[in-house]
Amino acid sequence: MPKGRQKVPHLDAPLGLPTCLWLELAGLFLLVPWVMGLAGTGGPDGQGTGGPSWAVHLESLEGDGEEETLEQQADALAQAAGLVNAGRIGE
To answer: Which stretches are transmembrane (predicted)?
Structure first.
């Protein structure tokens, strides 16, 4: 029986585990923003501006006549935040 350390082929990798993990995380941080940027341009409707988006759900318990007022409130809220109201959720 030989004495000393035995060489195991799969443990003699040139890169260590911390280096491999760092490279994988760096790749994720580079690829995810790129993929997310592409997702906004070619959506089902193709109407994405490519910038940040947001949604507000305004609900009224009164009649259907309040729908116009809710749209106006959504537009006013968007203008106050410096954004553009792109319409209803799911449109």
So the answer is: 21-39
